[in-house]
Design brief:
binds coenzyme A, single chain, 185 residues, globular, Aminopeptidase, alpha+beta, 5 helices
Length: 185
């Protein structure tokens, strides 16, 4: 399969990482609010550097099971977040995804815009049958993005993840290819 990125949307470019992205990436990765519902973070400068170096190494391989993309805000030529998609079950054509954005750019529809483009690629370019994501139940912004995109809440898992010293509850959201096609009509 050909590389299905970069992807351009009205305001964003989803592209591979560059070494020069480090300052922008660290801006959001070092913010404790941004990583409050995740197992990683807040990052030290060393951790961001290490993580970016790993992305750069992984980007040399194609095809690969997981694709991490930087999200560039075209008007500012700035990385305002990142998004990942991975093949979680190849036999059943199922992929999972995640996203992280700089707090200064929240609630302006950027995650929804980037994820819409990502879902389009999942269903059109690599013909997934089902795409899912999970989030902490307290992460309203995250599950709102998924609901705006037409994803269904398939379940709630009680205390399924031990993160930052507490057991958290998670929602699982998913969408099937035919549901995505209907939502796009
Ligand atoms: C989750 C996240 C990616 C959303 O990014 P975003 O660019 O702000 O998302 P959007 O602007 O596309 O949509 C957010 C929606 O949530 C709503 N929202 C956010 N916080 C809310 C709250 N506390 N109460 C009610 N609605 C809320 C916004 O109003 C918006 O909905 P609307 O368009 O209907 O008004 C961003 O908050 C983030 O990076 N968080 C930290 C990392 C993270 O938690 N990643 C997900 C891990 S599962």
């Amino acid at each position: 399969m050909e590389r299905w990125f970069p992807i351009r949307t009205a305001r964003l470019l989803l592209r591979e990482f560059r070494a020069s992205d480090e300052f922008d990436v660290h801006e959001y990765a070092s913010d404790p609010i941004v990583s409050q519902f995740d197992e990683w973070g807040p990052n030290t400068p060393e951790k961001t550097s290490e993580r970016l170096a790993r992305h750069l190494r992984e980007q040399e391989r194609w095809p690969r099971q997981e694709v991490d993309l930087a999200v560039e805000l075209l008007s500012e030529q700035k990385i305002i977040g990142s998004t990942s998609v991975w093949m979680s079950d190849e036999k059943n054509r199922t992929a999972g995804f995640g996203y992280t954005f700089n707090q200064r750019y929240w609630n302006q529809g950027f995650a929804t815009e980037a994820t819409r483009a990502l879902l389009n690629s999942c269903f059109q370019s690599f013909e997934m049958h089902r795409v899912w994501a999970s989030c902490d139940v307290r992460n309203i912004g995250s599950w709102r993005v998924m609901e705006k995109l037409g994803m269904r809440r398939e379940g709630m898992f009680l205390r399924d993840k031990f993160q930052k010293g507490v057991w958290r509850d998670s929602y699982l959201y998913a969408i099937l290819a035919d549901e995505w096609q209907s939502a796009c009509r």
